[in-house]
């Protein structure tokens, strides 16, 4: 029994009912990485594992995750849409604001954990390092859209741009989307950006090297980091 409880009992003070019912804030986990790194598969496997462990978890993605945000996603990624890089940037932030207000913030406050396939760090890597939009502008916009929330754990899967483009399998539009179809130099800048992001956020970031034909090995490593944050003992 804590000292606080002892003092309250000694003074005849009862804790208000709402204090007992306040859930602990859920954990926010993010998987990131360049094209072809396999993060979507890893996120799905991790979500299935956490669910089997009895952890109340929501699996979502950016851009997307709500009806309105999924509509924005289709606009952003459509390879036939003639958007400027600035327009795509603002569409990303609009989609992000939707999912944070409607899904992520309420769920975390209810004690549920969030597992997200991409986040504001992708915007830093792709629109910032990749396309040259001011990094501080992106950081400020992310902070607004994300309501000041940072991940408890940011997992970055590191794959070379060359290998990643070789591994691409997702063809949401029947062909490569607006970012998958970018030139190799763009993807090299993006991947460099992800490593800089990890370097700038050492308290929350882990870099998991891509292992050819080693998805299960990578999954075990990712689980280890997640379970540490959830105060679980073993994978």
Description:
This protein is α/β, with parallel strands linked by helices and 235 residues long. Residues 1-11 have low confidence and may be disordered. The protein has helices spanning 3-10, 17-21, 39-52, 67-77, 85-109, 120-130, 135-145, 161-167, 184-200, 215-229; strands at 28-33, 57-61, 113-117, 153-158, 205-209. Helix content is 53%, strand content 11%. A five-stranded parallel β-sheet has the order 2-3-1-4-5, sandwiched between helices. The protein has one domain (24-229): 3-Layer(aba) Sandwich (Rossmann fold).
Question: Which features characterize this protein?
Answer:
10 helices; 235 residues; alpha/beta; disordered N terminus; 5-stranded parallel beta sheet; single chain; Rossmann fold
Topology:
Layout: H1 3-10, H2 17-21, E1 28-33, H3 39-52, E2 57-61, H4 67-77, H5 85-109, E3 113-117, H6 120-130, H7 135-145, E4 153-158, H8 161-167, H9 184-200, E5 205-209, H10 215-229
Parallel strand pairs: 1-3, 1-4, 2-3, 4-5
CATH fold type? Rossmann fold
Domain tally: 1
Name the CATH superfamily classification.
P-loop containing nucleotide triphosphate hydrolases
CATH class: Alpha Beta
Helix content: 40-55%
Q: Based on CA inertia axes, which overall geometry fits?
A: globular
Q: What's the total helix number?
A: 10
- C-alpha termini separation: 30 Å
Stretches where pLDDT falls below 50 for ≥5 residues? 1-11
Biggest beta sheet attributes: 5 strands, parallel
Strand order of the largest sheet: 2-3-1-4-5
Tell me the strand percentage band: 5-15%
What is the gyration radius calculated from CA atoms?
20 Å
**Number of beta-strand segments:** 5
How does CATH name the architecture? 3-Layer(aba) Sandwich
- What is the averaged pLDDT score? 89
Structural class category:
alpha/beta
What's the order of the H and E elements?
A: HHEHEHHEHHEHHEH
């Amino acid at each position: 029994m804590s000292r606080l409880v002892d003092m309250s009992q000694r003074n005849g003070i009862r804790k208000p009912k709402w204090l007992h019912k306040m859930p602990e804030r859920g954990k926010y986990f993010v998987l990131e990485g360049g094209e072809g790194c396999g993060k979507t598969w890893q996120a799905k496997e991790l979500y299935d594992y956490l669910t089997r462990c009895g952890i109340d978890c929501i699996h979502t993605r950016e851009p997307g995750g709500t009806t309105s945000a999924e509509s924005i996603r289709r606009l952003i990624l459509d390879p036939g849409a003639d958007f400027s890089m600035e327009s795509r940037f603002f569409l990303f932030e609009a989609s992000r604001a939707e999912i944070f207000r409607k899904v992520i913030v309420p769920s975390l406050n209810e004690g549920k954990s969030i597992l997200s396939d991409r986040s504001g760090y992708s915007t830093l890597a792709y629109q910032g390092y990749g396309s040259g939009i001011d990094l501080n502008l992106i950081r400020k916009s992310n902070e607004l859209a994300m309501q000041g929330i940072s991940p408890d754990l940011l997992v970055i899967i590191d794959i070379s741009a060359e290998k990643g483009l070789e591994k691409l399998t997702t063809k949401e539009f029947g062909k490569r989307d607006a970012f998958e179809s970018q030139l190799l130099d763009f993807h090299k800048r993006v991947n460099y950006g992800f490593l800089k992001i990890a370097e700038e956020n050492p308290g929350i970031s882990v870099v998991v090297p891509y292992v050819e034909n080693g998805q299960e090995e990578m999954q075990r490593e990712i689980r280890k980091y997640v379970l540490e944050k959830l105060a679980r003992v073993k994978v």
